[in-house]
Amino acid sequence: VRVFTWFILKLFKVVSSPLGKEVCYQRLGCFTDDPPWSGVPGRLLTGLPDSPEHMNISFNLYTRETGNNSQVISAINSSTIQKSHFSLRRKTSFIIHGFGSTGKKGWVVEMCLLLSEVENINCIAVDWQEGAKGTYVSAVNNIRVIGAEVAYFIKTLQKIFRYSPREIHLIGHSLGAHTAGEAGRRIQGIRRITGLDPAGPYFEGTPPEVRLDPSDADFVDIIHSNAAHFPAIGLGMYNTTGHLDFYPNGGSVMPGCTDFIPEMKQSDFEAIIADATIIGGCHHSRSHEFYFESILHPTGFLGYPCETYKSFESGDCFPCSQEGCPMMGHYADRFPAKLKRVNQKYFLNTAADPPFATWRQKVFIKLSGVKKMRGDINLVFHDTEGNTKEYEIASGVLSQDQVYTKYLDVEINPQNTKKIEFLWNKTIFTLKILHCGQKTQMFKYKPGNNCLERNTAVNNLECILFCHCKTITTQDKASLIPRCITRSIV
To answer: Which part of the chain is the Lipase domain (predicted)?
Structure first.
């Protein structure tokens, strides 16, 4: 009886050890508050994780057969998996939410429904709402148990159903990203983990055991959308933590979000971390919104290798190198060089509104005529569905024979581009567009025609010549443009 009583205490209650405290749960093992889990720089938190029963963890399966509904399956009762629509012939994705969220509605369910429809996979929405709704510190502690539960589920699939971890993709947002990392630390061979703006507070700069790390899966890709950059508050990590780390719009502040992100001293940050989780929510959520749209727009999120966002903005990293560029989001694993090294940094810009996709193009325009004059040069892109987007190339005092270069992140897919208009709005005089060499005729825009340069060996660079040679008068416009647009293609 005494031995049995001690065993029960060991499994379900906190016990003291010479180094610190620990708590043990059946099936999952023991959890301690020893370093690096607490008491290290950047992680001066206290406490131990709650029990799985307290957090009411559930795994909800979505497939094409379940439609908009789900089936609750359990590794503890493996017959629920066998009786469900889970198919051993499909790949499987686990979607894991973060602090203050849920896996029973919202973006997690929408992601599962889309993935199961587009790719016919088993999609499992992991819900740990009860463990994620307390304080941020308690949620940070709880993800260790959630990660252990996900690992236990995968081990059950492996042992009972002979289902390989290499068929599994873990997708986690915020604390859910580190939860996926904890699962990957416990079971080797997981094919892929995607971290959607991994949580920064209590994880930035910590040892790899604590946070998501490239060693947690065969391939780890990250989208940073609200990276902490003091003095501004950020809910995500700034440091690289995967094989491929993507920094859309620089990785901290997202266009289209109106959240106020205040500035503060780092010493003040710890004191208000619970409240700070509300600030910047739009920026933080953009990561899973980008991923969702990337499923539907496979070519619209091309990332460029760069050391800094400033270098990317200035065009230093355009076009792609000979090895090509990866796509941020769902199709990042198609990049041949994805495992070349860890901590590869990629930058891109997105649109402010859904579907967020853009296609980077480099525009050259050279003018001839009077030496100096004031005016504006714009391009208008037209697609096959009647949508238009206008972009400014140059404005103010314009000079003869000067080349005006602009990097555009165009929201219209080049494959759907029907026409491009050149707009010249000036105050006085006229301006003649530079002659186009031997190409003096007008022609309709057709992607791929009249190519000045095409790198066929890599097939990722295309330069197209658009010509329209005549004098443009006040408030005039012309279809197509002189010189060329260089863009990376897939």
So the answer is: 21-356
